[in-house]
Amino acid sequence: MKDLIPVVYAVLTAIFWGSYGPVLHESRAYLKSPFKPYLLIGIAYLVWGIGGGIIGMLYKKDDFSLTAFTGPGGRWGLAAGTLGAWGALTLTLAMFSGGKPYIVMPIVFGGAVTVSALVSVWKESEHTSVNPMLWVGVAGIVVCAAIVAYFTPTAPPPAKTNAATQATAGHQSPS
């Protein structure tokens, strides 16, 4: 059972992050701005990140002293947070520039899996060899992301009406 706990958390992460794009799209539509939601995302990260971090540290009885956050671990933590914030910003920019969640999100998450694998290959290249099936998997992610993006159902665009139709709509001839 203990082996399933990371899988459960991974599935929950996929659900949360998979919902992120469509929810961000709704927020942008209501706020009529791509950057107001980004500011709110930052506030949410601040609240949940600090709150969750404190709760987790209390649970583990971690050291809260300032020196506990210095050194390489602190720098790597700030780097991870910065990459996450930049990811949220570039996702906001993707949507701002006209991207639709059903196109952007498969690229983001298929790309994230691929980048994670490539970083691991780079970091571990001196210690192990790369199984060729990794490259098959990378190609499969590209194909699958394209299929998901292409076949995701979307609402049809609103019907366009021309000026002549609008002008005569109110003037019906008697029959």
What does this structure look like?
74% of the residues lie in helices and 0% in strands. With 175 residues, the chain is mainly alpha-helical. Helix 1 crosses helix 4 (101-124), helix 2 (35-60) runs antiparallel to helix 3 and helix 4 packs antiparallel against helix 5. The longest helix has 27 residues, at 5-31. The radius of gyration is 23 Å and the shape is globular. The mean pLDDT is 84.
Compact summary:
With 175 residues, this protein is mostly helical. It has six helices and no strands. Helix content is 74%, strand content 0%.
Supply Rg: 23 Å
Number of strands: 0
Strand residues, percent: under 5%
Distance between the termini: 75 Å
Q: Which structural class matches the secondary elements? A: mainly alpha
Number of helices: 6
Return the string of H and E elements.
Answer: HHHHHH
Number of separate structural domains: 2
What global shape is seen? globular
Helix content: over 70%
For the sheet with most strands, the description reads: none
Mean pLDDT: 84
| Spans where pLDDT lies below 50 across 5 or more residues | none
